[in-house]
Amino acid sequence: MSKSKRKSLRDSFLTWQCHVRQVAMRENGGRPSPGMQPQILDEAGAQLVPGLTVLLAPKEPKESTAFLRFQVLKYADPRETYEKALAYLQADYFQTGKAFSGRLLAALPSDAPLAETLLATKRCVLAFAQGRYAFRLPCKVKRLKAHSADREAAIWHNRVFNPALPDTVQVLAFKPDWDAAETKKI
Asked: Is the pLDDT of residue 150 over 80?
């Protein structure tokens, strides 16, 4: 695939993801929609799980992570944390795909068999579908190290919706192979 086609596919995916996430934040109170929960397939195409909620990794996560962390730590009432953070995510957070790196993140329990499988094989396919669009993204998978910017971004984002998320959670990063990625209208 040429560099321009690869960039076009990546940009189309991120634009679509931002739209899917804007709708989820603005119309569904932040509840993940199917387009935010791809099927996880092995490289042969066998389904490992029917859906896993993934986050878009911001190119510059420092500001949003600091804001979400502050909201989680500031309010004793999880509802107040949720409302303040949701207002932030509803505003312009998902305004443009250019704000995101193209990597996807997922938080899993420390003892999750899925994490063990993905880390052992180091590869999977994320199969997204919602509305008229579907994307298949072959990905490299790795566990993020403690205190990495993407790991912190994923943890504090998830704590807005699940304040009981433990520090021991694993955060996996999925790096798409845009040369092998596919899209189609459905």
From this structure: yes
